[in-house]
Amino acid sequence: MNSETYRKIVRLSGMYDFIFTIPFVTPWSFQLLNHFLNQLSPTPTFAPIHVVFVNLFGSIVIIWSILRIRYPMAIYGAYDAAGRLLFSIWFMTYLLIHAFHPVMFIFAVFEIMWFIIQAYGFWKLPKLAREFSSGSFL
After folding, report:
1. Under a CB-based contact definition with an 8 Å cutoff, are residues 27 and 34 in contact?
2. Where, by residue number, does the polypeptide cross the bilayer (predicted)?
3. pLDDT tens digits, residue range 113-122?
4. Which of 8, 69, 101, 113 could bond 14 through an S-S bridge, CB–CB 3.0 to 4.6 Å?
5. Mean pLDDT, the chain, whole residue set
6. pLDDT digits (tens, 9 = 90+) for 14-25
7. Nearest to 61 by CA among 34, 29, 6, 23
């Protein structure tokens, strides 16, 4: 895989995160999302402390997505792949052990897909492209 193609993959994963994470950033947008999800299948009641953590998660993912959109470096794709692997593990854990909301399965599928694309793409990059990308921004 060439560096420019991989940069496009990193940027696209950032765009995906930005679009799908926006509803988690504010208490009001999360309330709308939660109302919509309740129409599909009941969700648990969220106490204010839960909403704070949802908003913190949303905020940090939005910042991380903007970084990858603006500076789609290969090393960011590698770190994002690692994060997506962790997200996938936790999504699947809650789905299998706690029979969590079915929408979690959709998120898990996308996390696994982005993990595979970015991890494989990084692995297929020439060694020089991987090394150069880690220090070119700093």
Report:
1. no
2. 12-33, 45-67, 74-97, 103-123
3. 999 999 999 9
4. 69
5. 89
6. 999 999 999 999
7. 23
Buried b / exposed e along 80-95 (16+ C-beta atoms within 10 A): bbebbbebbeebbeeb
pTM of the model: 0.84
Tell me what pLDDT residue 75 has. 93
3-state per-residue secondary structure call for the chain = CCHHHHHHHHHHHHHHHHHHHHHHCCHHHHHHHHHHHHHHCCCCCCCHHHHHHHHHHHHHHHHHHHHHHHCCCHHHHHHHHHHHHHHHHHHHHHHHHHCCCCHHHHHHHHHHHHHHHHHHHHHHCCHHHHHHHHHCCC
